[in-house]
Amino acid sequence: MEKMVLQAGHGLDANGYIVSDVSKDKIDPVYLSCIQESIEALQNLFTKQLHSVYLYGSVARGEAVLLKSDLDLIALFHTKLSSVHTAALKKLTRELSHKYRTLVRDVGIATVYYGETVDPANYYENAFLKELCVCVYGEDLGKQFGPYKLTSDIATSFNGDICESLNRALKRLDTDSTDEFKTFSQGFARKLIRTYYSMVMARSQIWTTRLHEQSEVFIHYFPAKESIIQTLLKWIDEPPTNRDVVHEVFTREGEWACVNFTKEANISANSRG
């Protein structure tokens, strides 16, 4: 087994708690106009429902690449959106993506709701806001959560839904248009890599949100998977075009992850190897 460049304790503090790698200070000023316009548009559309807005992903880490990175936002609402409001939000993301197409690949706005987010039982939403998001508007709910150690609970909360995600992915691969197929394939390739990493994060005691580093950590424990990881990384950089090949790879690898996730994710740090 090859020695990893990253070592146990990477991304953790002296007490073993996750150290978030996102902050307002890391946001490149070139993205501020897009972020601000997105916030203002959300305020105008949802004058009473909008609670707060969060940024996550490569822009929040200060690692975004012009034209290749997405601008990923989360809009947190007080109440559930109606079908009319949901349609309006989708229209907004299309308009923002088109306007800023010379800056980002896509502007995405995910939706979450206050009651679900503050519920202590909703471990995923709590940890995601705390460790992966920067509040760019409104009250920062992430401040009330954590800190979190790198446990199997974190792994399961973030990516234990692989079986459901796989089923949705295979259905979409059969119905999406060509452009949607390419974009979605890139998204699910990211999901697979993050899921693989989640399977070994607790035993490795390495915290990272960077796909190439996550890949390195996973390959250390599953070297036979290196070729498929390289394929997935290639698809993320350059979207695939062969629908049959993508379907075959996603089916095989998704089913493997689905079958093995729980067992692998629960292996402790004492079994790092």
Largest sheet: 4 strands, mixed
Number of helices: 11
Strand percentage: 5-15%
Low-confidence stretches: none
The percentage helix is 40-55%
Count of strand segments: 4
Describe this structure as you would to a colleague.
The protein is 53% helix and 10% strand. The chain has helices at residues 32-45, 58-61, 83-99, 114-118, 123-132, 152-159, 162-175, 178-204, 211-221, 226-237, 243-265; strands at 50-56, 71-77, 107-113, 133-138. Helix 1 runs antiparallel to helix 3 and helix 8 crosses helix 10 (226-237). It has 273 residues and is an alpha+beta fold. The termini are close together. A four-stranded mixed sheet has the order 3-2-1-4. Helix 3 links the parallel strand 2 (71-77) and strand 3 (107-113).
Keywords:
single chain; 273 residues; alpha+beta; four-stranded mixed β-sheet; 4 strands
Entry summary:
With 273 residues, the chain is of the alpha+beta class. The protein contains eleven helices and four strands; from the N terminus they run αβαβαβααβαααααα.
